[in-house]
Amino acid sequence: xxxxxxxxxxxxxxxxxxxxxxxxxxxxxxxxxxxxxxxxxxxxxxxxxxxxxxxxxxxxxxxxxxxxxxxxxxxxxxxxxxxxxxxxxxxxxxxxxxxxxxxxxxxxxxxxxxxxxxxxxxxxxxxxxxxxxxxxxxxxxxxxxxxxxxxxxxxxxxxxxxxxxxxxxxxxxxxxxxxxxxxxxxxxxxxxxxxxxxxxxxxxxxxxxxxxxxxxxxxxxxxxxxxxxxxxxxxxxxxxxxxxxxxxxxxxxxxxxxxxxxxxxxxxxxxxxxxxxxxxxxxxxxxxxxxxxxxxxxxxxxxxxxxxxxxxxxxxxxxxxxx
Length: 323
Fold this sequence. Notes:
Layout: E1 10-15, E2 19-25, E3 31-37, H1 40-51, E4 57-61, H2 68-76, E5 81-84, H3 86-95, H4 103-117, H5 127-153, H6 159-188, H7 191-201, H8 208-217, H9 226-233, E6 241-242, E7 245-246, H10 256-272, H11 274-285, H12 290-311, H13 315-319
Parallel strand pairs: 1-4, 4-5
Antiparallel strand pairs: 1-2, 2-3, 6-7
Helix pairs in contact: 1-2, 3-4, 5-6, 5-8, 7-8, 8-10, 10-11, 10-12, 11-12
């Protein structure tokens, strides 16, 4: 906030690999635009320029990780930063009649979005969380390549090609083992990570991948209400009603990586966690489709994990379950 009674400017930053296009709205129709390189030197120059009149809010689009250095540097300087879904920002631009798309216009649309919508800034991951997230990303990539190569192997007729694919599969499997070792080392290097992972994994159905995905991708776990956390994870059902029509509820949005990990965790929990299993079976007996029941189990599992982290008490001591 500025030193006067009026809030500071609202800033939109369009992010690309090599450049940051910036729009600063100072109230009314007054605005200025400029661009800096998307490297540490350019980001430092941006921070110095913005801190001359500290902004009320800076909004960036999520851009595959290219936004992280700028967002992290600005947040470290005490600037309120919100990283938003590109679809949300683009829908806002279309709603205001701006159909053209350039980097400069995108930055201006983000600044207008910041001023009109004022998305809530959230804490950015610290260096440990970023490291864990990058290793998890790499693990997902390797698993994806393994699935693709194994699928490819089943369709090949040429034995020389099959040999090369089998060799690549063996290499990927070894790389997956090495990546899992890196994940384990990253968790063991932090006492906080170790304690939090132990709490999460005390819940039946929660394995290392789900626990570590939640630690890296959902730092709000244990600090928000179950409803808000479900919306963040993308497992909260949204209404689609109009007049007398009652539409089918559906989940969408949120953090896709968290949702994917929760899906696999709920599949396991529906078999091995007594509370989730009973909940799932009860919903199916009521006539709910199995996938709908499974999404409900994802929400319930997330609520349990949220309570475990909030109360800092493991599953067994809360629920007194027998092994």
